[in-house]
Structures are given as C-alpha cells and as structure tokens.
Amino acid sequence: xxxxxxxxxxxxxxxxxxxxxxxxxxxxxxxxxxxxxxxxxxxxxxxxxxxxxxxxxxxxxxxxxxxxxxxxxxxxxxxxxxxxxxxxxxxxxxxxxxxxxxxxxxxxxxxxxxxxxxxxxxxxxxxxxxxxxxxxxxxxxxxxxxxxxxxxxxxxxxxxxxxxxxxxxxxxxxxxxxxxxxxxxxxxxxxxxxxxxxxxxxxxxxxxxxxxxxxxxxxxxxxxxxxxxxxxxxxxxxxxxxxxxxxxxxxxxxxxxxxxxxxxxxxxxxxxxxxxxxxxxxxxxxxxxxxxxxxxxxxxxxxxxxxxxxxxx
Length: 313
Known about the structure:
Blueprint: E1 3-10, H1 15-24, E2 30-33, E3 62-69, H2 74-87, E4 99-105, H3 107-113, E5 121-122, E6 127-131, E7 144-148, H4 160-172, E8 178-182, H5 188-195, E9 200-205, H6 208-220, E10 227-231, E11 243-249, H7 252-255, H8 259-265, E12 266-278, H9 282-291, E13 294-302, E14 305-312
Parallel strand pairs: 6-7, 8-9, 8-11, 9-10, 11-12
Antiparallel strand pairs: 1-3, 1-4, 2-3, 5-6, 12-14, 13-14
Helix pairs in contact: 4-5
C-alpha cells in the first residue's frame, strides 16, 4: 500500500485540534516537529533523545505530520482536512502559516517515522513515560513507569499540557479518591491517577478510537481493575457529587463549556485540574471557573501553556 504524508505548518496552540482533525480523517500516528525540542534541557539519563537534526524542524511555529493511505478519496480527504483547519479560526485558535504540503512515503517509512521522535522521558518527580517498543530500567525505587503505545489516539504523554496535568495529579490525588478523566485520549492521566492511589477512575472520550487505544494502555499498565473507560460527551449523564477530582486536558473553549457540570459532579471541596489552555485563554477559563463556584488554587505554566488547579467551594 502507498501512503501520503500530510504536513501542516502551524502554531503550538493548534497542535491538539489539528491532531484531532487528522485522526478523525483516518490518519495513523502524528508527528510533531517543534523547534523547542532542539534547545529543551533534558536529564543525562535520556541521552538518546539528544539526537535531533535541526534540519527536521521549522525556524518558527511547528509542523504537524500524519500519514494517509493513497486511494481514490485522498484528494477529498485532504480538502476536508484543510477546511476543518481553516474553521479553527472561528474558535479563535491561531493556525499560523497554515501551509499544507503532501508527499508520498514508502510503507516501511510510514510505519516507523513517528516512533523515532518518541523516547523515555522523565516528566515529573515520580513519573517516566516509556514507549512500549523501548527497554527502560528505573533509576530509583519510587519511580513510576507508564508504558504507552499512542497508536491512532493522539497523546504520547510528553506534551507540556499532559506533563502539567500529571504534575498536578501528583500534588492533588489522595489514596482512595474517585477521579474522572474528561477527554482521556491515550489514557495516560487515568493511568497516572490510578498509580497515585486513586480507588476508582472513570475515563471518558468522545472519540471511539481513543477509547479503544486508552483501554489497551490501561490494561498494559495493569490498572484496568481501577480504571473504567467509556465513550461519553464531557460529563453528560454523570451523577452529582460523585467525584473527588476531575482532570481535563482539552481545549480552553471546551473547558469553559462544562465548568458548571464539573461543579455539579464534584463533591464539596473537590478539585478540578484543567489543562490544554493556551496563555491568551487563561483569564477566560479562570473567569468561567470562578463563575461556576471554583477557587483557583494554583496556576502552572510551561512554555505557552497553562494548567489550573481549582477547588469547589
């Protein structure tokens, strides 16, 4: 089978919505080429990740790549992707240059191209994310290892928004907590919550592909007895006062739509970790949380992204 590589030159803010558009169009695996990776400081034990070629990265913005089968519908698929990306402007998402290019790749290149960007990464005090195809030995006795195979569900666990969520979970999850993960993607946040001692974790995603892949990752990390996953739209139908903590790593525009639902579902004093927020949207999300009855406890910043820890008062 022949494959076509679609490459979109865009912004950090648009990475996740464009990744979602590509997956909905049938792409298998997404590569993100961010020039920040060339200067990012990393600990010595992950030396292999230093082997990055500056020629593979844009001088500004980011490049999102995905792979589509070459068939009679390819032209229509690409046009639909372009239209969906252009429509992101309606949600006040900066799509930058929005330069789209197409090239043909061999099947063996497609199968492994995105994997070369993904290596073991220590993302917090306790957690290290390890792809399933890598061999990794823990460097400390209390290190928590999350094995991930992103498959067709975007999210390798190393994006700043995910890293901030996991760091917030480390500070927030208490043994025995009941947690809800809204927009679970690869399932990494649900896995982290379970490993930190949560008793019951419910993971929701609207995307059926994400639900399938998250279920595989949850089983791979042996937390399937604690984590239940299902297809659901945000918190629709979730019972009142049923969670100690809600975590959501999704777009700011989506977070503001269900802050009142989050307040309804959380127990008094419960916590809401919200990430996926680009800096210019921070105040909009804070206002929505305050209006829903939350107090902002902590603001976490990483690159151009923001995560908020809020408490139901």
